[in-house]
Amino acid sequence: MSTEQELKDIVRQKYGEIALQDKATNASSCCGSGCCSTEVYNIMSDDYSKMEGYNPDADLGLGCGLPTEFAQIKPGDVVIDLGSGAGNDCFIARSQTGETGKVIGIDFTEPMIAKARANAEKLGYNNVEFRLGDIEKMPVTAKTADVIVSNCVLNLVPNKKNVISEMYRVLKSNGHFSISDIVLVGELPDNLKKAAEMYAGCVSGAIQKNEYLDLIKQAGFEAITVQKEKQITIPDDILSAYLSPAEIAAFKESGTGIFSITVFARKPNCCDTGSACCN
Question: What are φ and ψ of residue 234, in 5° steps?
Protein backbone atom coordinates (compact mmCIF):
# COMPACT_ATOMS: atom_id res chain seq x y z
CA MET A 1 0.00 0.00 0.00
CA SER A 2 1.50 3.32 -1.05
CA THR A 3 1.55 6.12 1.48
CA GLU A 4 -0.01 9.49 0.76
CA GLN A 5 3.44 10.99 0.24
CA GLU A 6 4.42 8.23 -2.19
CA LEU A 7 1.26 8.86 -4.21
CA LYS A 8 1.99 12.58 -4.26
CA ASP A 9 5.51 11.85 -5.47
CA ILE A 10 4.08 9.73 -8.31
CA VAL A 11 1.81 12.58 -9.39
CA ARG A 12 4.58 15.18 -9.11
CA GLN A 13 6.96 13.09 -11.22
CA LYS A 14 4.36 12.24 -13.88
CA TYR A 15 3.11 15.82 -14.21
CA GLY A 16 6.66 17.10 -14.42
CA GLU A 17 7.00 14.85 -17.47
CA ILE A 18 3.58 15.84 -18.79
CA ALA A 19 4.57 19.52 -18.73
CA LEU A 20 7.06 18.69 -21.48
CA GLN A 21 4.56 16.76 -23.64
CA ASP A 22 2.37 18.27 -26.34
CA LYS A 23 -1.40 18.61 -26.08
CA ALA A 24 -2.10 15.83 -28.60
CA THR A 25 -0.18 13.29 -26.50
CA ASN A 26 -1.87 14.38 -23.27
CA ALA A 27 -5.40 14.58 -24.64
CA SER A 28 -5.28 11.12 -26.21
CA SER A 29 -4.29 9.52 -22.91
CA CYS A 30 -5.76 9.42 -19.43
CA CYS A 31 -4.96 12.99 -18.37
CA GLY A 32 -1.51 12.72 -19.93
CA SER A 33 -0.51 9.55 -18.13
CA GLY A 34 1.40 8.23 -21.11
CA CYS A 35 -0.86 5.29 -21.95
CA CYS A 36 -1.95 6.89 -25.23
CA SER A 37 -4.94 5.50 -27.06
CA THR A 38 -5.00 4.83 -30.78
CA GLU A 39 -8.79 4.41 -30.61
CA VAL A 40 -10.12 7.65 -29.19
CA TYR A 41 -8.85 11.20 -29.04
CA ASN A 42 -9.77 13.45 -26.10
CA ILE A 43 -10.74 10.68 -23.69
CA MET A 44 -11.56 13.11 -20.90
CA SER A 45 -10.82 16.68 -21.95
CA ASP A 46 -13.41 19.17 -23.20
CA ASP A 47 -12.85 21.79 -25.90
CA TYR A 48 -11.75 25.14 -24.47
CA SER A 49 -10.85 26.72 -27.77
CA LYS A 50 -13.97 28.86 -28.16
CA MET A 51 -13.86 30.30 -24.63
CA GLU A 52 -12.75 33.91 -24.18
CA GLY A 53 -9.22 34.12 -22.82
CA TYR A 54 -8.21 30.76 -24.26
CA ASN A 55 -4.51 30.47 -25.00
CA PRO A 56 -3.34 27.36 -26.89
CA ASP A 57 0.13 27.49 -25.33
CA ALA A 58 -1.50 27.00 -21.91
CA ASP A 59 -3.78 24.14 -22.95
CA LEU A 60 -2.09 20.80 -22.28
CA GLY A 61 -5.29 18.79 -22.76
CA LEU A 62 -5.31 17.61 -19.13
CA GLY A 63 -8.79 18.60 -18.02
CA CYS A 64 -12.01 16.63 -17.67
CA GLY A 65 -14.47 19.53 -17.81
CA LEU A 66 -14.89 23.28 -18.25
CA PRO A 67 -15.22 24.59 -14.69
CA THR A 68 -14.61 28.23 -15.66
CA GLU A 69 -17.70 28.01 -17.89
CA PHE A 70 -19.86 27.34 -14.84
CA ALA A 71 -17.99 29.30 -12.15
CA GLN A 72 -20.07 32.51 -12.23
CA ILE A 73 -16.95 34.68 -12.10
CA LYS A 74 -17.66 38.41 -11.95
CA PRO A 75 -15.48 41.44 -12.77
CA GLY A 76 -13.21 42.23 -9.84
CA ASP A 77 -13.34 38.74 -8.31
CA VAL A 78 -10.33 37.04 -6.77
CA VAL A 79 -10.12 33.57 -8.30
CA ILE A 80 -7.92 30.64 -7.22
CA ASP A 81 -7.22 27.73 -9.58
CA LEU A 82 -6.15 24.52 -7.85
CA GLY A 83 -3.64 22.51 -9.87
CA SER A 84 -3.22 25.29 -12.40
CA GLY A 85 -0.89 23.45 -14.79
CA ALA A 86 0.25 25.67 -17.67
CA GLY A 87 -2.36 28.30 -16.81
CA ASN A 88 -5.28 27.54 -19.11
CA ASP A 89 -8.12 27.99 -16.60
CA CYS A 90 -6.35 30.95 -15.01
CA PHE A 91 -6.22 32.86 -18.28
CA ILE A 92 -9.88 32.14 -19.01
CA ALA A 93 -10.79 33.21 -15.47
CA ARG A 94 -8.78 36.40 -16.01
CA SER A 95 -10.90 37.25 -19.05
CA GLN A 96 -13.93 37.08 -16.75
CA THR A 97 -12.59 38.84 -13.66
CA GLY A 98 -10.93 41.52 -15.79
CA GLU A 99 -8.08 43.85 -14.93
CA THR A 100 -9.69 44.80 -11.60
CA GLY A 101 -9.65 41.22 -10.35
CA LYS A 102 -6.88 38.78 -9.53
CA VAL A 103 -6.20 35.16 -10.42
CA ILE A 104 -3.91 32.89 -8.40
CA GLY A 105 -2.85 29.52 -9.76
CA ILE A 106 -1.44 26.91 -7.38
CA ASP A 107 0.53 23.87 -8.53
CA PHE A 108 3.11 21.67 -6.80
CA THR A 109 4.99 20.74 -9.97
CA GLU A 110 7.87 23.11 -10.72
CA PRO A 111 7.92 22.55 -14.52
CA MET A 112 4.21 23.43 -14.65
CA ILE A 113 4.73 26.60 -12.62
CA ALA A 114 7.60 27.62 -14.90
CA LYS A 115 5.49 27.01 -18.00
CA ALA A 116 2.52 28.96 -16.58
CA ARG A 117 4.67 31.92 -15.56
CA ALA A 118 6.24 32.04 -19.02
CA ASN A 119 2.78 32.03 -20.60
CA ALA A 120 1.59 34.84 -18.31
CA GLU A 121 4.70 36.86 -19.16
CA LYS A 122 4.05 36.46 -22.90
CA LEU A 123 0.46 37.60 -22.42
CA GLY A 124 1.49 40.59 -20.32
CA TYR A 125 -0.87 39.78 -17.45
CA ASN A 126 0.13 41.48 -14.22
CA ASN A 127 -2.89 40.27 -12.21
CA VAL A 128 -2.31 36.55 -12.76
CA GLU A 129 0.26 34.84 -10.55
CA PHE A 130 1.35 31.27 -10.03
CA ARG A 131 2.41 29.90 -6.66
CA LEU A 132 4.31 26.68 -6.04
CA GLY A 133 2.54 24.80 -3.29
CA ASP A 134 0.47 21.85 -2.12
CA ILE A 135 -3.29 22.38 -2.33
CA GLU A 136 -3.64 20.45 0.94
CA LYS A 137 -1.86 23.41 2.54
CA MET A 138 -2.39 26.34 0.22
CA PRO A 139 0.07 29.26 0.20
CA VAL A 140 -2.90 31.62 0.55
CA THR A 141 -4.30 33.49 3.56
CA ALA A 142 -7.79 32.76 4.84
CA LYS A 143 -10.83 34.42 3.24
CA THR A 144 -8.96 35.48 0.10
CA ALA A 145 -11.00 34.08 -2.78
CA ASP A 146 -14.41 34.90 -4.17
CA VAL A 147 -14.26 31.86 -6.45
CA ILE A 148 -12.24 28.64 -6.65
CA VAL A 149 -11.95 26.59 -9.83
CA SER A 150 -10.15 23.33 -10.47
CA ASN A 151 -10.01 20.93 -13.40
CA CYS A 152 -9.35 17.21 -12.89
CA VAL A 153 -7.07 17.70 -9.88
CA LEU A 154 -8.74 16.72 -6.57
CA ASN A 155 -9.02 13.13 -7.78
CA LEU A 156 -5.20 13.05 -7.86
CA VAL A 157 -4.92 14.03 -4.19
CA PRO A 158 -4.86 11.16 -1.66
CA ASN A 159 -6.46 13.19 1.14
CA LYS A 160 -9.36 14.98 -0.51
CA LYS A 161 -10.85 15.95 2.85
CA ASN A 162 -7.83 18.16 3.55
CA VAL A 163 -8.14 19.94 0.21
CA ILE A 164 -11.85 20.60 0.65
CA SER A 165 -11.17 21.96 4.14
CA GLU A 166 -8.53 24.27 2.67
CA MET A 167 -10.99 25.43 0.02
CA TYR A 168 -13.40 26.39 2.78
CA ARG A 169 -10.64 28.25 4.63
CA VAL A 170 -9.47 30.39 1.72
CA LEU A 171 -12.93 31.29 0.41
CA LYS A 172 -14.58 34.46 1.58
CA SER A 173 -17.96 34.32 3.28
CA ASN A 174 -20.51 33.54 0.56
CA GLY A 175 -17.70 32.59 -1.83
CA HIS A 176 -18.15 29.55 -4.02
CA PHE A 177 -16.34 26.98 -6.12
CA SER A 178 -16.88 25.16 -9.41
CA ILE A 179 -14.62 22.16 -9.89
CA SER A 180 -14.47 19.42 -12.50
CA ASP A 181 -13.30 15.99 -11.40
CA ILE A 182 -13.37 12.26 -12.02
CA VAL A 183 -15.58 10.13 -9.78
CA LEU A 184 -16.75 6.53 -9.76
CA VAL A 185 -20.01 4.66 -9.52
CA GLY A 186 -19.04 1.13 -8.49
CA GLU A 187 -15.57 -0.32 -7.88
CA LEU A 188 -12.65 -0.33 -10.34
CA PRO A 189 -10.78 -3.61 -10.91
CA ASP A 190 -7.81 -3.99 -8.56
CA ASN A 191 -5.24 -3.82 -11.37
CA LEU A 192 -6.46 -0.36 -12.36
CA LYS A 193 -6.37 0.81 -8.76
CA LYS A 194 -2.77 -0.34 -8.35
CA ALA A 195 -1.38 1.10 -11.59
CA ALA A 196 0.77 4.18 -10.98
CA GLU A 197 0.21 5.58 -14.47
CA MET A 198 -3.54 5.26 -14.14
CA TYR A 199 -3.29 6.98 -10.76
CA ALA A 200 -1.46 9.92 -12.30
CA GLY A 201 -3.99 9.70 -15.11
CA CYS A 202 -6.95 10.58 -12.89
CA VAL A 203 -8.74 7.26 -12.71
CA SER A 204 -7.35 5.18 -9.86
CA GLY A 205 -7.28 8.17 -7.51
CA ALA A 206 -10.99 8.79 -8.01
CA ILE A 207 -13.51 8.01 -5.27
CA GLN A 208 -17.19 7.20 -5.31
CA LYS A 209 -19.45 10.03 -6.44
CA ASN A 210 -21.59 9.92 -3.30
CA GLU A 211 -18.49 9.96 -1.07
CA TYR A 212 -17.10 12.93 -3.00
CA LEU A 213 -20.29 14.95 -2.56
CA ASP A 214 -20.53 13.93 1.11
CA LEU A 215 -17.01 15.28 1.80
CA ILE A 216 -18.10 18.64 0.40
CA LYS A 217 -21.20 18.66 2.60
CA GLN A 218 -19.24 17.61 5.70
CA ALA A 219 -16.84 20.54 5.20
CA GLY A 220 -19.76 22.95 5.68
CA PHE A 221 -20.56 23.92 2.10
CA GLU A 222 -24.12 24.50 0.97
CA ALA A 223 -26.04 24.73 -2.34
CA ILE A 224 -24.10 21.69 -3.61
CA THR A 225 -25.03 21.15 -7.25
CA VAL A 226 -23.73 18.87 -10.01
CA GLN A 227 -23.60 21.34 -12.90
CA LYS A 228 -22.52 18.84 -15.55
CA GLU A 229 -21.95 15.10 -15.71
CA LYS A 230 -20.64 12.83 -18.45
CA GLN A 231 -19.52 9.22 -18.53
CA ILE A 232 -15.91 8.49 -19.49
CA THR A 233 -15.19 5.54 -21.77
CA ILE A 234 -11.66 4.15 -21.49
CA PRO A 235 -10.73 2.45 -24.80
CA ASP A 236 -9.72 -1.20 -24.91
CA ASP A 237 -6.15 -0.42 -26.00
CA ILE A 238 -5.62 1.40 -22.70
CA LEU A 239 -7.50 -1.13 -20.58
CA SER A 240 -5.47 -3.96 -22.12
CA ALA A 241 -2.33 -2.61 -20.46
CA TYR A 242 -3.87 -3.48 -17.10
CA LEU A 243 -6.57 -6.11 -17.69
CA SER A 244 -6.91 -9.39 -19.58
CA PRO A 245 -9.57 -9.69 -22.31
CA ALA A 246 -11.83 -11.56 -19.88
CA GLU A 247 -11.30 -8.89 -17.22
CA ILE A 248 -12.10 -6.13 -19.73
CA ALA A 249 -15.35 -7.88 -20.65
CA ALA A 250 -16.27 -8.33 -16.97
CA PHE A 251 -15.45 -4.68 -16.28
CA LYS A 252 -17.73 -3.49 -19.08
CA GLU A 253 -20.57 -5.72 -17.90
CA SER A 254 -20.19 -4.78 -14.23
CA GLY A 255 -22.09 -1.51 -14.41
CA THR A 256 -19.10 0.34 -13.01
CA GLY A 257 -19.03 3.90 -14.27
CA ILE A 258 -16.25 6.48 -14.54
CA PHE A 259 -17.71 9.97 -14.70
CA SER A 260 -16.56 13.53 -15.13
CA ILE A 261 -18.63 15.84 -12.95
CA THR A 262 -18.55 19.59 -12.46
CA VAL A 263 -19.68 20.50 -8.94
CA PHE A 264 -20.72 23.87 -7.51
CA ALA A 265 -20.92 24.68 -3.80
CA ARG A 266 -21.04 27.82 -1.69
CA LYS A 267 -19.52 28.77 1.65
CA PRO A 268 -22.29 30.07 3.94
CA ASN A 269 -22.71 33.77 4.53
CA CYS A 270 -21.38 34.16 8.04
CA CYS A 271 -23.06 37.53 8.48
CA ASP A 272 -26.42 35.83 8.04
CA THR A 273 -25.77 32.76 10.18
CA GLY A 274 -23.55 34.18 12.90
CA SER A 275 -22.02 30.73 13.10
CA ALA A 276 -18.50 29.32 13.15
CA CYS A 277 -18.49 29.25 9.35
CA CYS A 278 -16.31 32.34 9.42
CA ASN A 279 -13.36 30.19 10.42
Answer: -90, 120
